[in-house]
Amino acid sequence: MYDVIVVGGGHAGCEASYACSKLKKKTLLISANIKNIADMPCNPSIGGTAKGIVVREIDALGGIMGKVADKTHLQIKMLNSKKGPAVRSLRAQADKVEYPKAMLNILKSQKYLEIKEAMVEGLDVKNKKIEGVILENGEIIKSKCVILTTGTYLKSQILVGDTKTPSGPHGENFSKNLSDKLRNLGFEIQRLKTGTPPRIDKRTVNLKELQEEKGDNKYYTFSFDNEPSYDLDKQISCYLVYTNEKTHKIIKENLDKSSMYGGYVEGVGPRYCPSIEDKIVRFQDKERHQLFLEPETVSNDEWYLQGFSTSMPKDVQERMVHSLKGFEKAKINKYAYAIEYDAINPLQIKSSLETKIITNLFTAGQINGTSGYEEAAAQGLMAGINACLKIDSKEPLVLKRNEAYIGVLIDDLVTKGTKEPYRLLTSRAEYRLLLRGDNADLRLRKYGYEIGLIDQKQYDNLIEKEKNINYVINLLKTTNLKLNEETKKIFTQNNIEIPNRSESLSKLLKRPEINIKFLKNFCSLDYNEEILEQVEIAIKYEGYIEKTKKEVERLISLENKKIPKDIDYDKVGNLATEALEKLKKVNPTTIAQATRISGVNPSDIAVLSVYLKKEYGKNE
Amino acid sequence: MNDTICAISTALGVGAISIIRVSGPEAISIVNKVFKGKDLNKVDSHTINYGYIIDKNKIIDEVLVSIMKAPKTYTKEDVVEINSHGGISSTNKVLEILLCNGCRLAEAGEFTKRAFLNGRIDLIQAEAVSDLISSTTDASRELSLNQIGGKLSKIIKNLRQEILEVLANIEVNIDYPEYEDAVLVTVDILKEKIKIIEKKLKEILDTAKDGKLIQEGIKVALIGRPNVGKSSLLNKLIEEDKAIVTDIAGTTRDIVEGSISLKGIKFRFIDTAGIRDTSDKVEKIGVEKSINTINDADLVIVVLNGTEKLTLEDKKILESVKSKKSLIFINKNDKKLNIDLKNTIDVIYGNTINEDGIDNLKEKLIEMFNLGSLNLNDFTYISNARQIALLKGAKKLIESIKEQIENEMPVDLIEIDLKRIYDVLGEITGETYQDELIDELFKNFCLGK
Fold it and tell me: Are residues B270 and B354 in the same domain?
């Protein structure tokens, strides 16, 4: 008897089984193919806008994605570094051979974790409660909780042109029956689609024709505990290339041969990650589109052609690739393909990621309708944490929208559902000035510590950091600049206008041309860069941070208006039909959550509030 | 909202007929119980039916009953309207019978509240209905009707759309920093956009001022020493004897007001207690009230006694209105004038005995408020204090944005304020949910529609 069985060894499964075993729960990870654990079947990168912040959040809570990425990347960059602090986000080109290896090593060293190679085809359910899983060979393995992280492996089909082959990624075995079993249990199954571009043998590309994109000339790590372990100068570059008239002509002429336009696809693909034929059809006036040639690993010369995902037949793909400048003689190692798979409707899961239908059954990752390694890992971690809390009869950890991107992600899923593979975007977060990559530890480490994924030493470091930040902020607020010949000279030397009167250093720091390093001229600021960065952000953007906090207060007041679990929406009366249906389906736990459901209008919320007041007294 | 409500929806005692409105799931069946005529449960929707309201087989009134079935009604519920013969006693009796047969008396504004809650009208429309009920002049009624039509909602929705497009562009820049497909919203581009948004906001706010005039009317305070003829002037202006006029100085101890309509705009004249140092306690309170009235008046008319030289008190009064929009009425020009007023602000001479100067005064008022140029045909004015406050809030945010652009704040931070403006505009049309809003709103409704 296990405490937790994790089905699937992708990014969600890895975090889930790591968290459960770290929390000393007897855990079994079942993977269809152990060599595919932590596989990156699509882009060879970890992080990106919003996603990079999620990786930091995972690390803050005690997950492992960031730690592994730090050790195995080929290049790292801070995106949006010229924009405000809220939208900066790390992205690393990960080595897709080394990353899975490192991950597997960590999992293998977990004392409470066993790994088994098998295909799960059924669930052992009694009285709407999970009791274990059933393998392909009929074997039943018992557990208290099950976490499904099946990725794209539910009834997967690979599409290339007009050919449709039942298969997982890389021609792997897939689960034929599990999604039907889920449907029989009452889950709504939806068909989703995603795609991946061709892989090119880099040696056959004339890189001189391409524009080089280097990694940042500054050290970064995802993890708050890691020191940089790479060599700045040894980062591997990416390359920028454009499609051209010839490429577009080939695509237009062969449109009916693509799976998408030929009508061979039933799954819904993501709008934010369109195939190249989609881009050309939808944006007719664009003369060219950007593509990036990205390294996948140091182990071989297979490179990833980002932006060129397509479901064209192989011969058309050849011609498309060869039309690109520098790619005239390029050799395609792996053709682009689209993949269709089954997922459940995320409206059927709770904020804890436990399903509403089957007790102690959790789902995370692509099965919940998301896309992306980071989104998957985040859910895997939360599902793992909440399965453990459930076993211990404790309240689940539900992060709020003002606390973490992970909170935004899960709340969006369980409140709004999704019709296409869901990707996190910074624009999905209302309070992103608070949800920065640089302060993920300050936001979330305490939760990790309470749960037991963050150890005492990590926690002590956090408390020390907090103390120092507050000290320096206070110092700058209470220290006035002394205007004398000596200090005036410093301003002149730095080409900065001399203030006309003595003011506090914190006021001075609010001036756009002054940074915190400049203040070292006037007071001792012997702290590491991390602390000074926090102080600088807190002071420079104080006004906006306060504004955002005010808005959070409004959210919290609505969040505190709980909706009783036993509410009968049919009795409320006067709700619009659409709102009634949605409210019944989502079953929001608070008025705040109800306001976020699409199709529920302010008048419906008013009706609901009046009803709650009437029926349940003061609904505070 | 599962119960059926009723109320008299016309002014009591005025007009030849009164309308009693009933709304709710049992509206038709309840009225049918007390109606002698066709079976109302069986008649078609939107029909008018002749018959009698009866009470224990006794005929109470001869009536026409309109049957309107949900959802195509004002409240989106079943609605019945009973047209009865205007007399107070028979109308009240009909209402009483309905209450005895299962209706509940509607709370103030409840019909409109139901219309709003059932999604029949948006917030601007709901507020406009509230204004319509209390509007007393033709111009303000027309303004209310225009808002019900949603003209204002449309203007604001367009502005929101414009802002939304800028927001979306900034978001794309953030989420896809390496893609060239979207134009990068730079500070310079943002500056231009802000200019346009500011201009549109200003246009709406400018009409808001006019809208407020139309809706709430212009408040005019009459001030002056005791017994200079303020009350007489008020009576002449409104053509009725509202204020008590005596020869005894200090007669008016409380605020007396009356109104007239000039060019469709309501002028509310407020007679104040004469301002003087007094030991009379009651009069003293009156004097204090007068000073408060001056503070929130749109215009102050200083009334002076033309037969006397300016006194110290007159001078004090003139000094106190210096910063207000004001004019001077020199009274008693039917007698010998001794007043030694230097040419200061606008002065009208006249008296309340043979009514000389009263028409001049009215013309002056029209001129001062530019009512000749007020475009009464295009009533897309914002007119409600809540709406104006929200718009002013939005304008403040524009100021903050401009300031932060100067401070070289990153665009994605400035966007926070822009998003807020988007939300604020949504609050005007009721598209963003705000908890307190609805309670606040329906407090201001009066009975019936």
Answer: yes
Boundaries of domain holding B233: 219-368
B356 and B238 inside one domain: yes
**Helix axis angle, A98-108 to A65-72, nearest 10°:** 130
Considering A156-165, B273-282, B379-388, the range whose residues carry the highest mean pLDDT is: A156-165
Q: Which domains does chain A have, with CATH numbers?
A: 2-193+340-451 (3.50.50.60), 199-339 (2.40.30.260), 459-543 (1.10.10.1800), 560-616 (1.10.150.570)
**pLDDT > 90: what percent of chain B?**
16
B183 and B197 fall within a common domain: yes
Place of tokens 């012997």: A526
Contact assessment for residue B17 and residue B115, using Cβ atoms and an 8 Å cutoff: no
Q: What is the ipTM of this complex?
A: 0.85
Bond from prior residue into A100 cis (ω within 30 degrees of 0): no
Nearest to A363 by CA among A320, A405, A413: A413
Work out the angle at residue A61's Cα, subtended by the Cα atoms of residues A56 and A62, and round it to the nearest 5 degrees: 95
- Least confident range from A511-525, B157-171, B236-250, B360-374: namely B236-250
Confidence of residue B379 (pLDDT cuts 50, 70, 90): very low
Instruction: Give the three-class secondary structure for A428.
Output: helix
The pTM score is: 0.77
Query: If interface means Cβ-Cβ distance under 8 Å, which residues of chain A face chain B?
Result: 49-50, 79-80, 82-84, 86-87, 283, 286, 289-290, 292, 425-427, 433, 510, 512, 541, 544, 547-548, 557-558, 573-574, 576, 591, 595, 601-607, 609-610
- Assigned domain for B234 exists: yes
> DSSP 3-state assignment of B185?
coil
Query: Is residue A354 very low, low, confident or very high in pLDDT (cuts 50, 70, 90)?
Result: very high
A433 contacts in B (CB within 8 Å)? Answer: 413, 416
d(CA A292, CA A239): 5
- Residue of chain A nearest B408, judged by CA positions: A512
Q: Average model confidence (pLDDT) for chain B?
A: 77
Report pLDDT digits (tens) over A553-580. Answer: 888 888 888 999 889 998 887 677 788 8
Closest residue to B410, CB basis, from A83, A576, A607: A83
Q: Which residue has the higher pLDDT, B218 or A176?
A: A176
Tell me the residue type at A117: E
Query: The CATH number of the domain where B292 resides is what?
Result: 3.40.50.300
Residue B383 has pLDDT above 60, yes or no: no
The total of other beta-carbon atoms located within 10 Å of residue A399's CB is 22
| B283 and B224 fall within a common domain | yes
- Cα B153 to Cα A96, B99, B123, B216: the distances in Å are 54, 38, 9, 21
Give the whole-angstrom CA distance, residue A527 versus residue A113: 40
DSSP-derived secondary structure for A507-519: HHHTSTT--HHHH
The encoded tokens of residue A324 equal: 């690109």
The amino acid occupying position A449 is Y
Please, are residues A421 and A196 in contact by the beta-carbon 8 Å criterion?
A: no
Q: Tell me: pLDDT of A336 over 60.
A: yes
